[in-house]
Every structure is written in C-alpha cells, then in structure tokens.
Specification:
It is built from eight helices and eleven strands. The protein is α+β, with helices and mostly antiparallel strands. The longest helix has 34 residues. About 2% of the residues have low confidence.
Length: 316
C-alpha cells in the first residue's frame, strides 16, 4: 500500500510540475512575441515539447496496468542454437538488458551466471529493482536472433545464432505461493567464476528444480549456501506465480514451448550485423539501423512500440 501511495504521489508531482512548466512557457511566448525575440520563443517551444513528452510518459505508464506491471523483474538469458556464437550472443543480450536498466536508473543484481566453455555464457539471471521494470521488460520475453560474420570462424563465414530472454515479475513477500518441499530437488555445487583468488572453494551455489512443473532456478552470488537457497526460493516463488497466471489464461503450454525452442522460426526480433545493419522486431515490424545503440541498451522505442500494439490488440 505504501508503495502504491508513493507511486501515485510521483504521478501527481510530475503532473503538477508540467502544469507549472506550461504556465511558464506561455509567459515566455508572450514575452518573446512582444519583444520579437526568436531565442525566447524557441526556448518556450522546447519547453512545450518536453511537456508533451512528459505527459506521453504518464499516459504510457497508465497503460501498464497489469497486476504486477509495477513490480521489479527477474530476467534470465539462455543461449540456444548456434554453438559458441550463441553463447557469445547470450552475453551480448545480457549486457543489452543491463545497459537498458542502467539507463532507467534501475538497480541490477546478477544472481547467477554460467560461463560457456569457449566464450560468452550458457545462461545468467539478474534481478531488476525499479518502478515498472516488469511491465517494460516483459516485452523482451522470447527468442532473439543474431546474424553476423562469426569472430570464431577462421573462414569468416556468416553465422546465425539464437538466445532467449525470459522475464518474470519479482513478486512481493506478501503474495502467497504454496510450494511443497517434497516437490523440490535441491542441488548444491561450486560457484563458477573467472578463476583466481576469488573462486568459491565450497559448494555454496544452489540449484532448485520444481519437479511437477520442471521450473529451475539457481543462485551463486551469495557467499553462503543458506543465502543462495533463500534467494533461489524467492526466484522460484516468482516463477511459480508467473506460471500459474499463464496457466489460468490457458497459455502456459504455448509459452513454455516458445521459451524452450530457441532456434529458427521462433524469434521475436532479429539483429543483423552483416551484410547490412538492421534490428527488426517481427511482432511490430519496427526496424532501425542503429544496431550499436540497440545493443548498448537503447531499446525503449522497441519496447514501447510492442507494448502499445499489445495493449491495443483486440481481445479474443
């Protein structure tokens, strides 16, 4: 309740600030016209443009009205078809998501990261804390396809590789999710890393498998097994909640199939680096040639365009 109150207060505060800015802009325009001062009029016009953008942001957030849209998010990245290029691509996607979160001013915690043998990662999981993190990041749910000249191919051939992003809400502790201990398979293992003096020499990392659903979570960033287990259980509760919501909407089977099929024909977005440069979101057909910017986390337009289309889609 306190979080909801704070969020509503922020909306009111932004609204009031824009009303004051609009009044100031009107005064500037009047002064500029009276004095025939183009610089003053230009300043006022820039202020009005900023006001419109602020109101668009308010309206967009109002659209994010799902039960958990305002929550933080748990984001997992997994490499798919494409061998070593896919592992490298998974690490690139992880960086893209982290950079996007940093642009938003959200807190990011890496709770698990499994390096691949040659380059990149097999998978990783992060917890994102910030207003509407889940509501926005859920647009990245799905398979992402990369086309480029492989840096791992001595012949310099073009390679297509795939990686998947899965986003679930970071649910509050007051949301009840019943998990029977008998349904859990808990494994401990030694946390991986780059080597050296900081490598964990005890089996402190924890992997939990929920046998009835096949959901798997793991955590290795904490120093103790107890702390890793506690965080893994929190992640499992979030995944279980998301799973139950999907099942309630009769979409669980299709969602699970799409998340596991990290290969041709299932991608939501393609990133082409060769023979031309283009990012294409297949759900909206929004295209951009600013590939480097996108891979550096500039994905706000891609996310907004998809969410607006999803919100306006006719209900079955």
């Amino acid at each position: 309740m306190l979080r909801d109150k704070k969020r509503l207060e922020q909306v009111v505060s932004v609204y009031d600030a824009q009303v004051r800015a609009l009044a100031d802009a009107e005064v500037l325009i009047e002064l500029g016209e009276e004095a025939q001062d183009e610089a003053t009029i230009t300043e006022a016009q820039a202020t009005v443009t900023g006001i419109f953008k602020a109101f668009e942001d308010i309206e967009f957030r109002r659209m994010l009205s799902g039960e958990l849209d305002s929550n933080g998010a748990i984001v997992s990245v997994a490499s798919g078809a494409g061998g070593v290029d896919a592992s490298d691509w998974a690490s690139m996607l992880l960086r893209m998501i982290i950079r996007y979160c940093e642009r938003k001013g959200w807190k990011v915690e890496i709770v698990e990261e499994t390096p691949a043998e040659e380059a990149g990662i097999k998978g990783a999981t992060i917890i994102v804390t910030g207003d509407f993190a889940y509501g926005l990041l859920k647009a990245e749910n799905g398979v992402h396809r990369l086309v480029r000249v492989s840096p791992f191919d001595a012949a310099g051939r073009r390679q297509t590789s795939f990686a998947a992003i899965t986003v679930t809400p970071d649910i509050d502790d007051d949301i009840e999710v019943n998990i029977d201990e008998k349904d859990l398979k808990i494994d401990t293992y030694r946390a991986g890393g780059a080597g050296g003096q900081h490598v964990n020499k005890t089996d402190s990392a924890v992997r939990i498998t929920h046998l009835p659903t096949g959901l798997v979570v793991q955590c290795q960033n904490e120093r103790s097994q107890h702390s890793n287990k506690a965080k893994a259980m929190k992640m499992l509760r979030a995944k279980m909640y998301d799973f139950e919501l999907a099942k309630r909407e009769a979409q669980a089977a299709e969602d699970q199939k799409n998340r596991l099929k990290i290969e041709w024909g299932s991608q939501i977005r393609s990133y082409v680096l060769f023979p031309y440069q283009q990012v294409n979101d297949h759900r909206t057909e929004l295209k951009t040639s600013a590939v480097d910017a996108v891979l550096d986390g500039d994905i706000d337009e891609l996310i907004r365009t998809y969410l607006l289309k999803a919100a306006n889609a006719p209900r079955a």
